[in-house]
Amino acid sequence: MKQEKMLSDILENEQVPPSGRGTQCVDDDCLEELQDTDTSALSDIAGAVCTMLEGVGEDPEREGLIKTPERVARSMRFLTRGYRQDPEEVLKKAVFTESYDEMVLVRDIDIFSMCEHHLLPFFGKAHVAYIPDGKIVGLSKVARVVEVYARRLQVQERLTQQIRDAIQNVLNPRGVAVVIEARHMCMVMRGVEKLNSVTTTSAMSGEFLSSPSTRSEFLRLIKP
Ligand SMILES: [Zn+2]
Q: Whole-structure pTM over 0.85, yes or no?
């Protein structure tokens, strides 16, 4: 494993955004996210939230709730902004030819997603590894792909596979492995499971499937 050297090499190769477009933001679509201009979608959601407030027995006109429909609409659009982004395009922006052929692992990527069955959050960590076959990708883009898929309505199983497939499709590496560990508020808050239950899903391809030693190296490296 030459992971640390890889990290600095790849970060140096990352494209730098034009100056004057914000200091924290390294992704070109970040500013766009701050100002949602789809007024028709926003007002549809706000109308539905208003109805929902009445449905739970609230008065949408009372002071504390007066701006809630609009706030929830903006929040919901933000939390589902992954629908308006193409994960494979995100990856393609930072693919480099490189002869490095050991496992590349990005671990402990924070994920915040929403379950499509209850519209409640689930959150945790994703660990993503691949074994390059002539091409590598900027490490921040691996995290961005996780983010794009997580910011949609999801089930954890599909989220895990979509991340694997996007990396497999764009880089055509010798193998991809993805593990996600997450806590689901629909289980915790509704009292279905114990407070600290964690759901683990995995999706693998190529050498991670065919080589037990590669797979166990990956699993050993992501152990807390
Ligand atoms: Zn759920």
A: no
